[in-house]
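Submission sheet (multi-component)
Chains listed below:
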Amino acid sequence: MNDFGIVMGLLGACAAVFLAGCGSAVGVGIAGQAASGVVTEDPGKFAQVLILQLIPGTQGIYGLLVGFITLSKIGVLGGNPTSMSFVTGLLILAGCLPVGIVGLISGIAQGKCSAAAIGIVAKRPDQFGKSMLFPAMVETYAILSLLISILAVTNIPIS
Amino acid sequence: MSVMPMQKLSICAHKSNRKAVLETLQQFGAMEIIPDAIDDQELEKMNTSEARAQFERDAELADQALEILDRYAPGNKAGLAMLQGNEELTSADVRQVALKQGECIKQASSILSFEKAINECRGNILKDENQKEALIPWMSLDVPMTFSGTEKTAAFIGTVSGVYDDAGFSAALLEKDPGLDAVSTKTLFTENDATNITAICLKKDAEKTEAALRALGFSKPAQPAMGIPKQVSEDCDRDIDKQNSEIENLKKKIAAMAPERENLKIVADYYRTRAEKYRVLGTIPQSKQAFFLEGWVPAVQADRISKLLSDRYHAVVEKEEVREDEVEPTVLHNNKFSQCAEGILASYGLPQHGKVDPTTIMSFFYVFFFGMMLSDAAYGIIMAAATFIILRKFPRMKTGTKKMFQLFFWCGLSTVFWGFMFGGFFGNAIDVIAKTFFGYTGATPILKPLWFDPLTHPMVLLIWCMLFGCIHLFTGLGIKGFEELQHHQIWDFICDVLAWYVFLMGLILLLLPSQLFANIAQMTIVFPVWLSQAAKWMSILGAVFIVVTSGRENRNWAIRIALGAYNLYGVTGWLSDVLSYSRLLALGLATGVIASVVNTMGSMLGGGVGGAIFFIVVFLIGHTMNMAINLLGAYVHTNRLQFVEFFGKFYDAGGKTFEPFTTNTKYIEVKEEAKV
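Outcome: structure written.
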């Protein structure tokens, strides 16, 4: 059963990356569609809408961050995996879940929010500063989940 | 530092000086004119809409001509137009060009007519090509498509439904009418379930043949070409060649007019300026002999402008008091460093008069937080160097753009600072390169962080982030207190600001020696007993005070306490605000981690020449992307920390942008004796 510890740990790292990554991918995709629409009408707004499109991309980065920390924690990154109990592996998996799941859902929600914010830029380009705020609000929850995931993963003792 | 005080001026002068006064004001660009300032039945306004429309049309004409010129004879460095800014000219230069404005407009019109001719040629080419395509099914026909027969014979040229070959078609015709054995038929082309055919018969059989053909679904071509298809098609080719050479010719003609570009730019802006002048002229009330004008100027400029106008044009200029219902426009005035952040503030909203302009305080936090989020020395160096070079190379770029670049220059320097503090230089590139290519086996990291490595001590950094956050938030609350003191609202200051300071400080002091904090920060703080006691009483007193006084406008004590309790609940808002600063940690870590992922990927092929080439490619692509994404993240989230957390404590924008009456040019900048 002890061999499963490392499997669970790796599963945790991967879950953080793929769940949050999917969230960002969908989010950036949604915002990108709206951005393309604006640029066909007014290519001059490219830079502004690009910034808005990329805002939902951070969840993927947070996932990567936790994935990386987990990989180095369980020793997969160095090439010699630490042997750990099944329970420890599960603990690490659990620690990775916040950033994964919140990243997935907040990424999609933020993508929709960004698409709406792109609508602001399309009609009132002078309100760019405010349009950036609405999607940034969604981000807070991704950051909070990231925080808990990092706290959990770095503080779980390996045994 | 502050919102510039504004002065309302009212100007009255003789009508003959009307245009001269306006031109002077326009050149200064320091006055926002209040339209329809004086409402008096006896005063009239001039109708300038026609003149204004004419100028706008001419400016538009010149703009279009310039656009066409750029298309056929691209000016140099067209892509950098945003950075280059407007060309600087003296007013004498402009006057000289303005003298031959008629000439310039004629040139512009001829450029436009050349463009029109080119479009016509293109239209003709399109028509020819369409005709050629329509003729493809008839190409094997060697008589005109409208050919209806000779003296003795009748010919049918058209399409029948169904697919046939030569033999099949004559068989089909015979089947419809067995008497038609003297009809010569031929199929020409088959497509889409239809066949183009010719049928020739003796005149006497014409009716019968036609009937049989109709039974097969015969129809004549809808738009037959005049002449033999092959020849018509060749004619089309010749015409296309002709039109093409005509287009080339016209393009050359347009390109030959490239030297007119400078004059056209000047003329376009000249007309734009005059159109603006006539717009304002139309809003000015005038009597028989005089005209009246009211507007805002920055107070520091008021004396100079009034002196100039009264000396030069014998105008009567008076300083007016601000009326209750009037909103003064906002102009910010800041030191050289902080004014770069004015754009950030303006994108949220300008401050009202009588409120604090937070730009200066914000600018320091902005640069500080930005650097912390990007926190890679190499990225910072690239950023600072790039913005520095751009600022040097394009000294005349528009003020707003320039301020933005200056801000990013400072943010770059801050990034370098934090990069060295945390030991990030392209992530861990130095270690990876030394190990992979130079066989380094000593201790890592080679570039030791001046402070500590956030990846190994994330908790310590988290605590610091929250500390910075507390300072930022307390500063915001402090500004609110300052504003209240400024307006002599002492009691409000005590209830809204001081009570919160006491309460929050008490809470923080309670938290520090607790087990929870010890676990997170991995250090134990022990307070002397008196301090713990003080913390306890501070938070209790603060909380009670807030509960009792927050609803002080309300006379009903029950409602008052309820409001107070609700207000105290706002402490959760403070908690989430402070936690929000953990993004400093998150984004900082993200930069470093992705950078080291890039480096690790690059070193996968090991040392040697192949490995080095692979490393360089991965390095360049990876770090460019990482830098771009994290720059964006740092920008967005630094803004957010300012707009939501910081401004949320005290700032409610609502100022009106100052829109001075000015030249409003697109291409040129006219150098004047003095501008704001």
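Remark: The mean pLDDT of chain B is 86.
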